Amino acid sequence: MVGRRYDERDVRIRPGRGSRPRTKRRPEHADARTAMVVAVDRGRYTVLLDPGGADETRVLAMKARELGRERVAPGDLVDVVGDTTGAEGSLARIVRIGERRTVLRRTADDTDPVERVIVANADRLVIVTALAEPEPRTRMIDRCVAAAYDAGMEVLLALTKGDLADPGVLTALYAPIGVEVVVTRRRVDPMTGERTIEGLDELRDALAGDVSVLVGHSGVGKSTLVNALVPDARRAVGVVNDVTGRGRHTSTSAVALEVPGAGAPTWVIDTPGVRSFGLAHVDPAHLLGAFADLDEVAQECPRGCTHLADSPDCALDDWVADAPDDTVRAARAARLDSFRRLLVSRLGVEDEPDRDGARGR
Ligand SMILES: Nc1nc2c(ncn2[C@@H]2O[C@H](COP(=O)(O)OP(=O)(O)OP(=O)(O)O)[C@@H](O)[C@H]2O)c(=O)[nH]1
Ligand SMILES: [Zn+2]
């Protein structure tokens, strides 16, 4: 279990620039209603009033000028004013961004010079990885785990195509660092030829009551999972492009979709545009905080210790060596290795070959 940390960088809600008298704004904002941002598309925000409730209303909104350059991300809880009827052609205004419980961000890179909040308030990152076709890329998984732990989110590894390969190796690699693993596989009914996905109920149970962000490379079966979890996913993303048959939002940003039948309000946020996480913003100390046991041991490290494998006198190495027996030693070594892998992944370059030699795509 990862402790959810709150970071001061997460909230930068400034009072509006005081050109208008306060008294004029106050009554207006007193009417504000809280809504959840489900999609962002070129300055237009789709928000839900009473998300998941009986009075759920889909409203299109824009950012009020007083928010300035403040970014609004899918998953944000915002206050909206103005026309919140959701009627055709109506446009509400977002006047406040609520405090964020978690923030999944991406470092600025060559293609995009701005550090972006990808998703706010998500509980969990679901890394969708095929066991074969395409081959799993542990480097990419490591980077996602590091990003999630830095964001204060839990991690679930959804291993798809379990009908094609065994999940044993990957499970052994990630279970020691608190990653929950669910395997799904396609089954084709020999009589009817009907295709179903096994493991879906287990996945839905794991997600129940939470907001989960799904990431995965092309071809891993992410759409298959999303469509199975959210039968009307296509309709939910809004405008469908006649040519591509895809929701218009899918090309631009993350979209939050409600998962029916999970018992409690449950959301998945699909991130079609997110192919990678730049991790330069991830602070090693922050990452260490996601591993309570290691964090405690590392208090004994020499000043400035990087905790990497080549760091002299790292207390984490003593902790492994001093284990009371072989079983504990093996468990500690596995956990330390995994933590170091995440530390290194932070420094790595996106398109380097995987550790196992597979080429990044
Ligand atoms: N054998 C097998 N094939 C699967 C399974 N799940 C999905 N596939 C196939 O894998 C291919 C890719 O699945 P998608 O769901 O389109 O993958 P995606 O990750 O959404 O990829 P993009 O649409 O390119 O982003 C499709 O041909 C699926 O039919 C599975 O459990 N087993
Ligand atoms: Zn150390």
From TrEMBL:
Binding residue positions for GTP: T160, K161, G162, D163, G216, H217, S218, G219, V220, G221, K222, S223, T224
Pfam families assigned: RsgA_GTPase
Chief location category: cytoplasm
Annotated residues for binding of Zn(2+): C301, C305, H307, C314
GO biological process terms, semicolon-separated: ribosomal small subunit biogenesis
Residue span, CP-type G domain: 111-277
Compartments (UniProt record): Cytoplasm
Biased composition (Basic and acidic residues): 1-13
SUPFAM superfamilies (alphabetical): P-loop containing nucleoside triphosphate hydrolases
Biased composition, class Basic residues, residue ranges: 14-27
Record-listed E.C. numbers: 3.6.1.-
Matching NCBIfam families: ribosome small subunit-dependent GTPase A
The family this protein is said to belong to: Belongs to the TRAFAC class YlqF/YawG GTPase family. RsgA subfamily.
Designated name of the protein: Small ribosomal subunit biogenesis GTPase RsgA
Organism of origin: Cellulomonas flavigena (strain ATCC 482 / DSM 20109 / BCRC 11376 / JCM 18109 / NBRC 3775 / NCIMB 8073 / NRS 134)
Lineage: Bacteria, Bacillati, Actinomycetota, Actinomycetes, Micrococcales
